[in-house]
């Protein structure tokens, strides 16, 4: 069992479902936990205390910069350090795109995407000063692959992927590892989506992966990891072989675009944007000695 003794973890959305499980499991393994939830933090803290763990309830909303700062400040005031940030808080706003109202857009993004920023901005300063930290953001297969009635949610969750990738690159020199979990589990938000599969989707399976990513021994960074029902996989953003046309124009593009978009021959899994751009450079033999450099 992974040991988190002496470590301090913030878990947002910790009152129910997956967040509750993360908080309980981290505390069970020795972490001191800031359990954040706007309406149910006290309950999970009581459970942790009853099991002999240490946790503090924090009910500030993640939807504002002030809220994020307050949650990080609470960790520092109570325990003097911060080692793990699990950005788990979420809300459900599903509708066909034609039925969306702008208030739902703002509400969803303020929690899912901006909420991550609100915690990460103050936590990042702490991690850099301490010389390390672990971040587990929450994305979704809905963001990566799409799903009807989920445009707002998907936009926020794909934003989390981009944020995770960039922060992993920037945090590596300071031993700040940043990953995203794409969970599949029983939860209030999921409701009856999974049907007969639901009994197989114990949150414990997802929590096991979150704890592995959050542990100080983990060197994994910049990844999107799908977890559910005991299955764990890497979700990829990849580049296909595509085509190269030195005299490309709109007629050629129109004629070959279906071919390009049907191509499943993966030739690279870029580690950053410049890796993908380097595939263009590689089409020019005269630039063989000019590999694009990450920056």
TrEMBL record:
InterPro entries: NAD(P)-bd_dom_sf, Peroxisomal_Beta-Oxidation, Sc_DH/Rdtase_CS, SDR_fam. It comes from the Bacteria. SUPFAM superfamilies: NAD(P)-binding Rossmann-fold domains. Signal peptide: none annotated. Gene3D superfamilies: NAD(P)-binding Rossmann-like Domain (3.40.50.720). Pfam families: adh_short. Keywords: Oxidoreductase. Belongs to the short-chain dehydrogenases/reductases (SDR) family. This is SDR family NAD(P)-dependent oxidoreductase. It comes from Amycolatopsis acididurans.
């Amino acid at each position: 069992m992974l040991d988190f003794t002496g470590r301090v973890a913030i878990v947002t959305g910790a009152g129910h479902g997956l967040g509750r499980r993360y908080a309980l499991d981290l505390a069970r393994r020795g972490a001191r936990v800031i359990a954040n939830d706007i309406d149910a933090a006290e309950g999970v803290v009581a459970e942790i205390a009853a099991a002999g763990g240490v946790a503090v309830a924090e009910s500030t909303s993640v939807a504002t910069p002030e809220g994020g700062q307050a949650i990080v400040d609470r960790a520092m005031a109570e325990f003097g350090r911060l080692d793990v940030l699990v950005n788990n808080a979420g809300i459900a706003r599903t509708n066909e795109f034609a039925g969306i109202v702008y208030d739902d857009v703002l509400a969803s993004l303020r929690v899912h995407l901006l909420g991550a920023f609100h915690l990460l901005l103050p936590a990042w300063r702490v991690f850099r000063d301490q010389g390390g930290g672990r971040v587990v953001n929450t994305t979704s297969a809905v963001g990566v692959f799409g799903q009807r009635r989920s445009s707002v949610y998907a936009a926020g969750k794909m934003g989390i992927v981009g944020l995770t990738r960039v922060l992993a690159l920037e945090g590596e020199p300071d031993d700040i590892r940043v990953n995203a979990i794409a969970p599949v589990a029983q939860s209030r938000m999921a409701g009856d989506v999974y049907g007969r599969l639901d009994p197989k989707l114990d949150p414990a399976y997802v929590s096991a992966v979150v704890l592995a990513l959050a542990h100080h021994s983990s060197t994994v960074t910049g990844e999107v990891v799908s977890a559910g029902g005991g299955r764990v996989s890497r979700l990829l953003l990849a580049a296909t072989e595509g085509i190269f046309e030195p005299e490309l124009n709109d007629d050629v593009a129109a004629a070959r675009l279906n071919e390009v978009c049907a191509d499943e021959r993966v030739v690279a899994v870029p580690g950053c944007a410049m890796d993908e751009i380097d595939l263009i450079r590689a089409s020019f033999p005269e630039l063989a000695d000019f590999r694009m450099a990450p920056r």
